[in-house]
Design a protein that fits this description.
This protein has 7 helices and 13 strands. The protein is an alpha/beta fold and 394 residues long. Bound molecules: zinc ion (ZN). Zinc ion binds next to helix 6.
């Protein structure tokens, strides 16, 4: 009877011991299910002490207890406990290595799915003529391609807000524009075909490259029809004569479309003794007895002014106090252009009082008025000017 009782107590002890170890492993496995697996890929410097404890102590604890149980079970030469312990240990190790099968919730968090790349189809044409440009290399976020005979190329990139598209090649002046890359789309970009424009002259007229070649200016120009306010008195209060005021008005009306490649015309003309300086959309013509030369003007400035000399006899032409050449020259400044080494925008004196913008001045001005304000040398649009995707609503 005592033997039976003793055997029973021993049996109870073994069962209790097995139950204790099993419960411990179940608890530790359960804990490992709730582990934050992203901690393993977190840079060490960003881990807190709690993270480190969680990562490092738990597996050590589990493996130590498991190893101890295994040793004990084999030493006791039990028939089932060694194998049970081994099975539990393997399960624990597998749960840590993340290959415990699809049914286990301990599998690591699946990686965030990468967004599908978008395709940008680019049509490259020649500024002005609009003809397709072949052999132009395009680059967008590291992806590259070259235009085919139709001036087309395709580039793939990760979807986002905007990205800079760079176009290069021996056939063009390097071009750079911002494009919206939210979804697969097409975009048309024009580039200056090599040889289609005198680039040196273009830099003089549009970037102040003649007077300050080391400090090329970003593009300044009007973005709407200018309204013109013509002051009828000079700064000393003397009235300007009617032929002069008529010549100024007619010449400005005729020349704004020339300087803007037909994009803009004079919206309205007002005459008076006030000013519209500082008022957006307006260009003020005023008169001075002291200004040097025949005139001066602000470059490409809305709300800016043109100031003519009202006293110097050499500035006269016919019945007008100021020659049409001077009016067209100062208007050229006002529309965004600088001095050149020749033609109408050459600074200084003119023998011809009725000079018009030359062919190359018109060609360079046409490119300028096909570019956004802020376009920089050689042909780079500012980051703030984005070629957006067309949208349609009903
Ligand atoms: Zn000038």
């Amino acid at each position: 009877m005592r033997a039976h009782v003793h055997a029973f107590i021993v049996k109870i002890g073994k069962v209790a011991r097995f139950a204790f170890f099993s419960a411990m492993f179940v608890a530790l496995i359960a804990l490992s299910f709730g582990a934050d697996w992203s901690l393993w890929s977190t840079p060490f410097a960003q881990l807190t002490m709690g993270d480190l404890t969680w990562i490092m102590l738990k597996p050590v604890l589990i493996l130590a207890i498991g190893y101890g149980w295994l040793l004990w079970a084999f030493a006791e030469k039990k028939t089932y406990e060694p194998w049970a312990a081994l099975a539990v240990l393997i399960l624990v190790v597998m749960s840590f290595s993340g290959c415990s099968g699809s049914s286990s919730p301990s599998a690591p968090t699946p990686p965030v799915p990468q967004p599908q790349p978008i395709t940008l189809t680019v049509h490259v044409t020649s500024t002005g003529s609009g003809s397709p440009l072949a052999g132009v290399a395009g680059e967008l976020g590291g992806a590259t391609a070259v235009t085919n005979g139709d001036g087309g190329l395709q580039l793939q990139t990760a979807p986002g807000a905007t990205q800079r598209l760079n176009l290069t090649g021996s056939g063009i002046v390097p071009r750079s524009v911002m494009v919206a890359v939210g979804a697969t789309r097409e975009v048309s970009v024009d580039a200056i075909a090599a040889g289609s424009v005198d680039l040196l002259f273009y830099r003089q007229l549009v970037r102040n490259g003649f007077e300050q070649p080391a400090n090329l200016q970003p593009l300044r120009r009007w973005t709407r029809n200018p309204s013109v306010y013509i002051r009828t008195v000079d700064e000393a209060g003397h009235q300007l004569d009617a032929p002069t005021l008529a010549t100024v008005e007619q010449t400005i009306r005729a020349t704004v479309p020339i300087w803007t490649n037909g994009q803009f015309r004079v919206e309205a003309v007002e005459r008076g003794t006030e000013t519209r300086e500082g008022t957006d959309g307006w260009l003020t013509v005023k008169w001075s007895t002291t200004v040097a030369g025949c005139g001066q003007a602000q470059v490409g400035q809305e709300g800016g002014f043109i100031e003519f000399q009202s006293q110097t006899r050499s500035c006269r032409f016919g019945t007008s106090t100021v020659a049409p050449t001077v009016i067209r020259h100062e208007l050229g400044h006002a529309m965004g252009f600088w001095h050149t080494d020749a033609d109408l925008m050459k600074g200084g004196n003119w023998t011809n009082g009725n000079l018009e913008p030359s062919a190359r001045e018109r060609a360079a001005a046409a490119i300028a008025y096909a570019r956004p304000v802020g376009n920089a040398d050689p042909d780079q649009d500012p980051a703030s000017v984005v070629t957006l995707a067309p949208m349609r609503v009903q």
